[in-house]
Amino acid sequence: MNFTGFTDQDFDSLTVPGLEPRMEAIISNIRPKLEALGGTIAPYLSALCGEEMFPHVAKHARRTINPPEDTWIAWSSSKRGYKALPHFQVGMFSTHLFIIFAVIYESPNKEKTAQYLEKHTAKVRKLVPADFYWSTDHMKPEGTPHQDMDKQALLQMAAKLKTVKKSELLCGLRLDRDHPLLQDGEGLTRRIEQTFETLLPLYKGSF
């Protein structure tokens, strides 16, 4: 399957009531597109990162009651999983698509990421575009635009990453569900690749 982009039906899948019906909608509507995107982006990311990057589609297997509010695909340097490693993600809430670099609470690399942020705060402020956003919780759709993040805010995020066990760091681009690029498979693929290239220094600085 060629990656063709995302439609309103895909975003609406994340508002279907009930765990089983929502999972059915995700599996039938969104998952095939995420799998196609995974195969499309993996060779590009592997070349970009200088090591093989493996796609991992979210399975939501641990859920027993609450239906997922978002779903995604992640790429990491491990064939076995991504959560313990710095990784790249493309995913969606019902309101928007996100294209991000992430280090989540399960990763032992958080301290390295924090040290990179502390050492290269000025560089990070320049390399991240103003319309990107930062988040410290992958479960929440909200984030802070980079243009609203001063040096102190970045340093506070780094300090939290080092000292709070459940802390996380996400940075990237979000596109509202009605953004015309979302239904252009080739155009969206290029935007994803460009975004990951922009975020590469954060990824490299986390090892």
Please name the defining characteristics of this protein.
6 helices, alpha+beta, 207 residues, 7 strands
- In the sheet with the most strands, the strands line up as 1-2-3-4-7-5-6
Quaternary structure state of the chains depicted: single chain
Globally, the shape reads globular
Task: Please count the beta strands (DSSP E, at least 2 residues each).
Answer: 7
Taken in chain order, the helices and strands follow as: HHEEEEHHEEHEH
- Percent strand equals 15-25%
Structural class: alpha+beta
Describe the largest sheet.
7 strands, antiparallel
Notes on the protein architecture:
Helices cover 42% and strands 18% of the residues. It contains six helices and seven strands, in the order ααββββααββαβα. Strands 1-2-3-4-7-5-6 form a seven-stranded antiparallel β-sheet, covered by helices on one side. A hairpin with a 3-residue loop joins strand 3 and strand 4. The mean pLDDT is 96.
Question: SSE layout and pairings?
Answer:
Blueprint: H1 8-12, H2 19-49, E1 54-57, E2 71-76, E3 87-92, E4 96-103, H3 110-119, H4 121-127, E5 133-135, E6 144-145, H5 151-163, E7 169-176, H6 185-204
Antiparallel strand pairs: 1-2, 2-3, 3-4, 4-7, 5-6, 5-7
Helix pairs in contact: 2-6, 3-5
